[in-house]
Design brief:
Elements (H helix, E strand, L loop, with lengths): L3 H12 L14 H15 L8 H4 L2 H10 L8 H11 L7 H13 L19 H21 L14 H28 L3 H23 L2 H4 L4 H26 L4 H28 L14 H10 L1 H10 L9 H9 L3 H19 L7 H13 L3
């Protein structure tokens, strides 16, 4: 077992603000990412960065934002989430809605959609599908805000004023709940029972996935194999996009086969996204300051599976400083010394190929090409 000091260190690390999430296409460079997004937004008809604007500019959320400003100067992660949403042009916050719109346009109108008129479409997408994309963004943003809630157990004065963290947690709960409430209201307005069931079950999946992540201890994570990692990653990171893509097909009255293919694209591209994000600290070539990475990142878990628990404990102890802090450079070197990184890269490319296969049945079009470009960019290292 780990020494008590290491266990306390691990728990406190989970309670502190996490490093910022990498861009969906971080591995392909900012210029490539910007081009893929701008081309895709042109295809679907408007910048998806404005998807949640109606809700974000509402009087209710404006009042919440005024209170969030009180967190300026504190360490609470809610402030970084807000900054990233507004200022970070390379953020992946709007990518999910963009993919829903691209899948909607790539599939096109259904021959069975007798009650849906082609003239109602804008840039080849039905208004209900655009509304669904906005709902997907609201739900994703709500969970991002909720993930910023800090575990205050063991918080000390050296970590920052406790009252700031308590206030930030209240704001994270209230603002996240507000976004979820708006998403649920919009979901009801779609007036489609199956779509409501799909997105509601996706919300439940995300909650289950996040709970599973948070309840796993450092020791338990060592037993996670590839299949278990995929199952957990799908719940917390893939279910919302996969079921939103399927729901977009349902709104256009596409058959079950098309719905299944859209679901598979959303599922596999989400797992690619998660693997790409987890791999960034291990594949970056720049010699800048190494950012802390999660011990539950895919390369770390695969490395632990390869070397075994006893060897992993030794590596953790060797990377722990006299001040009971992790030397991430030593830990990164240990992980890169085995095949954990290459296993994660191979798995990322596997899911990229599955995503590409899923959309080959759709007619050749700009939208399908944009979906293919996204998959290719995520799997490029």
């Amino acid at each position: 077992m780990f020494p008590a000091t290491w266990t306390r260190l691990s728990c406190k690390a989970l309670s502190r603000p996490a490093p910022r999430t990498q861009s969906l296409l971080a591995g392909s460079g900012p210029s490539s990412w910007s081009k893929v997004v701008s081309d895709a937004e042109r295809i679907v008809g408007y910048p998806t960065s404005f998807m949640s604007l109606r809700c974000l500019l509402s009087d209710e959320l404006s009042n919440v934002a005024m209170h969030v400003r009180k967190l300026i100067g504190t360490q609470h992660p809610l402030l970084n989430t807000a900054r990233g949403y507004v200022y970070d042009s390379r953020s992946n916050l709007q990518t999910r809605g963009l993919i829903v719109l691209l899948v909607s346009k790539a599939a096109g109108p259904s021959h069975a959609a007798s009650d849906l008129l082609p003239q109602d479409m804008v840039s080849g997408i039905y208004p209900s599908q655009r509304h669904l994309a906005e709902i997907t963004e609201l739900i994703h943003t709500a969970f991002l805000v909720h993930r910023g809630i800090v575990d205050l157990k063991g918080w000390t004065d050296s970590d920052g004023p406790l009252k700031d963290m308590e206030f930030g947690n209240k704001m994270a709960v209230l603002s996240g709940d507000f976004l979820l409430a708006n998403a649920c209201t919009g979901l009801a307005q779609l007036n489609n029972t199956k779509v409501v069931e799909l997105i509601s079950s996706a919300i439940g999946d995300v909650v289950q996935g996040i709970y599973s992540e948070n309840s796993s201890t450092t020791e338990e994570n060592g037993g996670v194999d590839t299949a278990a990692w995929e199952d957990r990653a799908f719940l917390s990171h893939g279910a919302l996009l996969a079921k939103s893509c399927q729901a977009a097909m349902e709104l256009a009255n596409h058959d079950k086969g098309s719905q299944s293919l859209a679901f598979k694209y959303g599922k596999h591209i989400s797992l690619c996204h998660k693997l790409n994000s987890d791999l960034q600290p291990f594949v970056k070539s720049d010699a800048g300051e190494l950012a802390p990475f999660s011990l539950s990142a895919a390369p770390v878990l695969f490395h632990r599976q390869i070397v075994g628990q006893e060897r992993w404990r030794q590596q953790l102890q060797q990377a722990t400083t006299l001040r009971n802090q992790l030397d991430y450079s030593k830990l990164l070197a240990a992980v890169k010394s085995e095949k954990g990184v290459s296993s994660a890269v191979d798995l990322c490319r596997y899911h990229g190929n599955r995503a590409l296969e899923a959309i080959q049945v759709f007619p050749s079009s700009e939208a399908r090409s944009a979906l293919e470009n996204i998959a290719s960019a995520i799997t490029r290292f």
